[in-house]
Amino acid sequence: VQLQASGGGLVQAGGSLRLSCAASGRTFSNYAMGWFRQAPGKEREFVARISVSGGTIRADSVKGRFIVSRDNAKNTVYLQMDSLKPEDTAVYYCAAGPNGIYKYYYWGQGTQVTVSS
After folding, report:
1. 115 CB contacts (<8 Å, ≥6 apart)?
2. Tell me: the pLDDT tens digits for 24-37?
């Protein structure tokens, strides 16, 4: 699976962005999809996940603000980010892996999100 993330940018605190991750190469609908982020000087952290059936989980730090969704017809997973905070600033990565197993074998190149205060 090849993954291409997009939609990052610079936004003021309180603003919104929607990230997209387009997949190609294999059957997208067979994979669980995840979003991760890595801020400068910090380790990569989990943000959200959506299963094959559409079930979602999110990190506590983004609950109530971020929503993950998928469109299997478009081979795309989305991350809607609202009420953004400066601490959300990071490079965001999408990833794909087997459903039911919290491992990811395919990764996108990352898209930068910068939230100014």
Report:
1. 10, 11, 12, 13, 15, 84, 85, 86, 87, 88, 89
2. 987 899 999 999 99
